[in-house]
């Protein structure tokens, strides 16, 4: 595996922190998926009080038109429509008293709802 690739034309769609990659890889392996082919799908969907929200799920393999970002051993798949909203974002894993989970730090966001679950670009 290479340290970083992006099949979206050279510009990195998303940066993946080491901790986020480690956490996601553990989850992928616990699902019995092959980390050489499978990955984390990061997408944007309609919803939330600000209009858009992030979605994540594990996929066995990328779709033909996906951008494939590979960093720190994790493959992240992003569909073309979502690339428009999350280009330049950073996927990180945060832990703490309020709970642990993945967080997308998106430089394209112009406003978020009060709870931080949805956004507008």
From TrEMBL:
It comes from the Archaea. GO terms for molecular function: 2 iron, 2 sulfur cluster binding; 4 iron, 4 sulfur cluster binding; iron ion binding. Residues 14-117 form the Core domain. GO terms for biological process: iron-sulfur cluster assembly. Pfam families: Fe-S_biosyn. InterPro entries: ATAP, ATAP_core_dom, FeS_cluster_insertion_CS, HesB-like_dom_sf. NCBIfam families: iron-sulfur cluster assembly accessory protein (TIGR00049). This is HesB/IscA family iron-sulfur cluster assembly accessory protein. It comes from Haloquadratum walsbyi (strain DSM 16790 / HBSQ001). The lineage of its organism: Archaea, Methanobacteriati, Methanobacteriota, Stenosarchaea group, Halobacteria.
């Amino acid at each position: 595996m290479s340290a970083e690739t992006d099949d979206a034309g050279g510009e990195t769609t998303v940066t993946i922190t080491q901790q986020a990659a480690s956490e996601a890889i553990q989850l992928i392996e616990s699902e019995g998926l092959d980390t050489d082919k499978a990955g984390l799908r990061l997408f944007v969907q309609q919803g939330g009080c600000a209009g858009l929200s992030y979605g994540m799920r594990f996929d066995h393999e990328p779709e033909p038109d996906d951008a494939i970002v590979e960093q720190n051993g994790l493959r992240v798949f992003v569909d073309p429509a979502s690339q428009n909203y999350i280009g330049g974002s950073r996927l990180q894993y945060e832990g703490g008293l309020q709970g642990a989970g993945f967080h997308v730090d998106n430089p394209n966001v112009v406003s978020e709802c009060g709870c931080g679950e949805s956004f507008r670009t």
